[in-house]
Amino acid sequence: MGSHVTEPSAERLQQRAEQIRQAEELLGSLPQTIGLAKGLFAGRLIADWVFPYPQLSINQKADTDAAVAELEAFCDRNLDPVRIDREADIPRELIDGLGQFGLLGMTAPAEFGGRGYSQMAYCQLLEVIGSRCSSTAIFVNAHHSIGMRGLLLFGSDSQRRRWLPDLVSGKKLAAFALTEPEAGSDASNVQTMAVPTADGQHFVLNGQKRYITNGAIADVLTVMARTPVAESDKTAITAFLVTPDMPGFQVTEPRMEKLGIRGTATSRLAFDNMHVPRENILGPIGKGLKVALTVLDFGRTTFGACCTGAAKTCLQLATDHAHRRRQFGRSLAEFELVQQKLVRMAAWTYAMEAMTTVTAGLIDRGLEDYMLETAMLKVWSTERLWAIVNDAFQIHGGAAYFTDLSLERMLRDHRINQIGEGANEVLMSFIALTGMRGPGLQMQAVSQSWKHPLRDAGLVYRFATDGARLRCCSPAVPLRSPELQRHGRSLGKQIRRFGATVQKTLVTHREEVLERQLVLERIAWMAMELFAAASTLSRLDSDLANNDRTHDAVARWCLADSHRRVEGLLRAMRCNDDDLLKRAASGA
Asked: Dihedral of CA 303/306/312/314: which sign?
């Protein structure tokens, strides 16, 4: 692969320095413990994060199964996605019913009126909603998973006592206000300012927010704003709890007209010298970025559950139609190209559910660092769901284009998934850079250690040992089923090769890797496919241990698909047309 190298301009160097500063602000707010995803970038499998496959306890499962059945019956009676889409509104009686059921505060502690559900159990309920109506699923996600999640995790006792009971019951609704004209996926670029008053008792907020789900109907909003850093000319992001009765709070557009998810109230907001009491600061002052990113972890996990529900609906619709519809004397299901689509849909749905369960399991275990896993889940599941919707559409042919079937609505509803809660392109760069940060810091420390070889001999030795491991030792995959050992060895080998590829990429590009988005995309997709394969293999191993072969062939095809994709990406790291693409783009 050739490379045309030019010296960066002074302006480009300044831009790169700003990129590095923003990346450090973002990554510095995150925990740095190694886990499943970060281990992959080092060529390791932190096996106990994914094996054995997470399971609800017997009592939890019985309670969750009953709640799922109850929610399905409630939705049969009360949830009309066609009406919601047509009228561009979620009826208040539906919201009240979901509140009475407990869905709007399912994971909250009982002391605040919640049912104390685990994240795994809650995801099963969100899957039910996601299978029926994307607008309702996003409304619930915006209220529970991100709107009031910051209050649950970072709120003071007085804040929680004041607001949680009404939010949990659904009497009041919550929203999460991060996105601005200059900040969305780039969460660190928030421009809304909050300046303390002279007596320090209030902060005066000025700024705008847009694309805020529930923004016009929420009673409590978590708002991100920049606050001054003491004895410095710098600012840092702080989270505030805001209510719409505060003077200066403005809803400039209550319901923005949209292509899909029409039932959600997506709003534009403005703050004009809005005084927010100091006691409404959520979490430590200046640590709002951590609040925002932690909250988004939960939203992305339930995002995976909603996508799984939608994928199951598409699969069922496509399967039924393929077996019922006859062309050229045969059912559609007898044609290989239709079979290819059906198997692909089934396999990706199986993997999507496995990844969601594994990720929710990390949260339930009380682990601190699962941000990479939630980002991977969000990107992988939304990209795969879009392909699944498209395949279901194609199998139905021209009939899918008409409004008497749900697929045209699903096509409109699910396009937003690759954009909301972090655009997938931005998240892929985040996944790659965050994952490579640990190996990069290690290499930087080793490089500096040559100045003091005797003092830092241990560091150099560990680096050399890790390098030797990446060349010849693949991580073991702990499987119970003997017939899956071959898949385990294959996965371990690819994890090792991926770690070596990460190391080589860092050596080749150094700090310029920030700008190598085509390289970062391949790195991110390899990591996501390895995560998908590990989750799928763990689930299949659990199925076989329980003598359940219902999804055996589909799961094995999924493993083969991920393996094939990783192999292709590894080859593309060495042989690609990136330079040709960039030359073509420069003349476009």
From this structure: negative
Greatest CA span in the chain, whole angstroms? 82
Beta strand pairing call for 235-242 and 326-327 = unpaired
DSSP string, 48-97: GGTSSPP---HHHHHHHHHHHHHHHHHHHHH--HHHHHHHTS--HHHHHH
Give mean pLDDT, residues 486-500.
Answer: 97
CA distance 320 to 128: 19
**Residue where the block lists tokens 């094996």:** 51
- Determine the Cα–Cα distance for residues 478 and 451; give it in Å rounded to an integer: 41
Catalytic residue among 180, 421, 521, 529: 421
Residues 529-543 have pLDDT tens digits of 999 999 999 999 999
Q: What is the pTM of this model?
A: 0.92
Q: How confident is the model over 363-413, as pLDDT tens digits?
A: 999 988 899 999 999 999 999 999 999 999 999 999 999 999 999 999 999
User: What is d(CA 86, CA 84) in angstroms, rounded to the nearest whole number?
Assistant: 6
Please state the rounded mean pLDDT for residues 564-573: 98
Instruction: Identify the H or E element spanning 563.
Output: helix 552-574
CA 54 vs CA 64, 70, 354, 360, 499: distances in Å: 15, 24, 9, 9, 26
Active site residue 421: yes
- Contact predicate 228/238, CB 8 Å: no
From CA 538, how far away is CA 532, in angstroms rounded?
Answer: 10
The amino acid present at 347, given as its one-letter code, is A
Q: How far apart are CA 545 and CA 338, in angstroms?
A: 31
Yes or no: domain 58-169 corresponds to CATH 1.10.540.10? yes
Residue 284's SS3 state is: coil
Q: Which CATH superfamily is domain 174-285 in?
A: Butyryl-CoA Dehydrogenase, subunit A, domain 2 (2.40.110.10)
61 close to 493: Cβ distance less than 8 angstroms: no
- Which residues lie across from 249 on neighbouring strands? 271
The torsion angle over the Cα atoms of residues 207, 210, 213 and 215, rounded to 10 degrees, is 40
Whether domain 18-52+425-577 has CATH 3.10.129.10: the reply is: no
**Rounded mean pLDDT of 335-355?**
98
Whole-number Cα distances in Å, 397 to 173, 319, 357, 540: 40, 13, 33, 33
Radius of gyration of the chain (CA): 25
Residue that the structure tokens 């830092």 belong to: 456
Which sign, positive or negative, has the C-alpha torsion 159, 161, 167, 172? negative
